[in-house]
Amino acid sequence: MNIGLIAHDGKKTLMQNFCIAYRGILSKHNLFATGTTGRLIEEVTNLSIHKYLAGHLGGEQQMSAQIAQNDIDALIFLRDPMAKPHEPEVNGVIKLCDMHNIPMATNLATAELIILSIDRGDLDWREMYR
Question: What angle do CA 99, 121, 11 make, to 5 degrees?
């Protein structure tokens, strides 16, 4: 499966810890991330991640394009409700995920549900739509 990873600045450490905890599951899949988030995850997990530009430099748009093409099977966007103005906007990404029936988590609890569902094979139906 293709899993997208984005985190606002205030949630990057949480994303790193999430990826450490679920490294075994994540290592079986193709990972895509905005630049800074991807680099930080790679540093602590040694996972292979396809990195786009930093979110505020266009990485969020690159991820959105992949979502629009239905090339992402699940997205984890750990968002900070108090995000800074330069950080990626979540509303457009949510809309695209809704349009293409792509599961999306915006907090740790739903991120864990999605990752565990992927591991059980609950989202294998997504493979039929690519």
Answer: 60
- Which pLDDT tens digit goes with each residue over 80-89? 888 777 776 7
Best CA proximity match to 32, nearest among 70, 75, 86: 75
Question: What is the distance between the alpha carbons of residues 23 and 5, in angstroms, rounded to a whole number?
Answer: 13
- Look at residues 110, 94, 90 and name the one whose alpha carbon lies nearest to residue 102: 94
Residue 29 is given by DSSP the state S
What does the pLDDT average to over 72-87?
Answer: 88
Distances (CA, A) of 68 to 11, 56, 81, 116, 130: 25, 19, 24, 24, 12
**Strands 2-7 and 30-33: what pairing?**
parallel
Quick: pLDDT tens for 96-109: 999 999 999 999 99
Q: Which of 99, 97, 74, 78 is nearest to 87 (CA)?
A: 78
Q: Where are the alpha helices (DSSP H) in the chain?
A: 12-21, 23-26, 35-45, 59-68, 91-99, 108-120
